[in-house]
């Protein structure tokens, strides 16, 4: 066993040997394959038909590929980057047949995805460097923000960590009620105040309680509205500043939740929230119900923020740690006969 010393004279957390961490199980792979099946069929099924009968990659093949990637919400900028890389490789190789295209496309997409530490570990099992580790969750209403928080709480608790939730979205009564429901499902405590209370005050109370009870992970919900950039920035900044009075390094992570099925709207939301606050990680939900899974590629590439979690269903287990290698492999995997 290895130990890391915590700050503020806290007791150390024992770390398991890396060889003992659970990585990508068969069940997780099956969930990922199923969740990405619509995107896979939309893009790569059409690509296979588009190149049928072609002996090499020519302008027609590249035009078809460009159209398919854009229609899958990879985004124009990222699509053109992918096409440009393939053209360079084709020019260098002098001749590229269509059988090689999938391999090259897989390599180029993987290279564009922003790397995160979860490529090499199960994030829920990864030892914490801070107690409490504070995660502030942002995103508009309807993207699956509260659901994502509940699933995160469940997964962290399942891995043996204590968890507390802060209901700092005080502008919608339903938001607090929904968080309480998810807190009950996950079996974790939810700190709340009355509707209309100061969100920063809720965050402050949550962290004070977490420190007093030596909680491992604190997840703070925030108001899911995009009224205007200045108002949003001021509110999120105030919440962060108040939390620092209790835990100086907080928040350790600002997690932006986006709905993958909204395509280009997700890009716009990412733009607005990254202007309003320092987003450090992304959670992209509802990928199982859409053929627009390419949005993961485009957002990760354009905003240079790692995708940390992806939502692939309604179940508590269906929020997965994002690993770019497994994601790309699933998109390109051949169907079983």
Structural description of this entry:
The protein has helices at residues 26-35, 37-50, 59-71, 76-93, 98-112, 145-158, 173-186, 199-212, 229-244, 264-276, 295-303, 324-332, and strands at 2-4, 13-15, 133-138, 163-167, 189-191, 217-221, 253-259, 281-285, 307-311, 319-321. By secondary structure, it is of the alpha/beta class. An 8-stranded mixed beta sheet has the order 5-4-6-3-7-8-9-10, sandwiched between helices. Strands 1-2 form a two-stranded antiparallel ribbon. α10 runs parallel beside α11 (295-303). The radius of gyration is 21 Å and the shape is elongated. The model is unreliable at 1-23 (pLDDT under 50).
Order of helices and strands: EEHHHHHEHEHEHEHEHEHEEH
| Helical run tally | 12
Mean pLDDT: 82
Q: Give the biggest beta sheet.
A: 8 strands, mixed
Radius of gyration: 21 Å
Query: What is the terminal-to-terminal distance?
Result: 45 Å
How would you sum up the global shape? elongated
Spans of at least 5 consecutive residues with low confidence = 1-23
Which bin fits the share of residues in helices? 40-55%
- What structural class should be given to the helix and strand makeup? alpha/beta
How many beta-strand elements? 10
What is the strand content? 5-15%
Reading side by side through the largest sheet, how are the strands ordered?
5-4-6-3-7-8-9-10
Short overview:
Helix content is 47%, strand content 13%. It has 337 residues and is of the alpha/beta class. The strands form two sheets. Strands 5-4-6-3-7-8-9-10 form an eight-stranded mixed β-sheet, with helices on both faces. A two-stranded antiparallel sheet has the order 1-2.
């Amino acid at each position: 066993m290895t130990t890391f010393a915590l700050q503020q004279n806290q007791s150390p957390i024992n770390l398991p040997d890396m060889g003992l961490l659970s990585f990508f199980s068969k069940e997780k792979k099956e969930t990922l394959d199923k969740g990405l099946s619509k995107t896979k069929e939309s893009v790569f099924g059409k690509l296979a038909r588009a190149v049928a009968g072609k002996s090499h990659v020519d302008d027609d093949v590249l035009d078809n590929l460009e159209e398919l990637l854009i229609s899958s919400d990879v985004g124009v900028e990222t699509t053109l980057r992918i096409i440009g890389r393939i053209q360079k490789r084709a020019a260098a190789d002098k001749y590229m047949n269509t059988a090689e295209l999938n391999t090259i496309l897989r390599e180029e997409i993987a290279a564009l995805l922003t790397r995160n530490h979860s490529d090499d570990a199960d994030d829920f099992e990864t030892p914490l460097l801070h107690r409490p580790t504070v995660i502030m969750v942002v995103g508009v209403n309807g993207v699956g923000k509260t659901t994502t928080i509940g699933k995160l709480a469940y997964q962290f608790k399942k891995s043996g960590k204590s968890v507390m939730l802060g209901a700092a979205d005080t502008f919608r009564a339903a938001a607090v009620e929904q968080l309480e429901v998810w807190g009950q499902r996950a079996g974790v405590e939810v700190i709340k105040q009355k509707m209309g209370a100061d969100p920063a005050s809720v965050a402050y109370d949550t962290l004070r309680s977490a420190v007093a009870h030596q909680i491992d992970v604190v997840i703070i919900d925030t108001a899911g509205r995009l009224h205007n950039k200045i108002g949003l920035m001021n509110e999120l900044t105030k919440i962060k500043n108040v939390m620092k009075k209790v835990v100086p390094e907080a928040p350790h992570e600002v997690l932006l939740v986006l709905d993958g099925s909204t395509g280009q709207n997700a890009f716009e939301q990412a733009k607005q929230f990254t202007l309003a606050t320092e987003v450090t990680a992304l959670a992209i939900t509802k990928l199982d119900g859409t053929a627009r899974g390419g949005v993961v590629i485009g957002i990760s590439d354009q905003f240079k923020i790692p995708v940390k979690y992806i939502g692939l269903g309604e179940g508590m287990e269906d929020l997965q740690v994002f690993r770019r290698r497994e994601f790309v492999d699933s998109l390109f995997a051949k169907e079983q006969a």
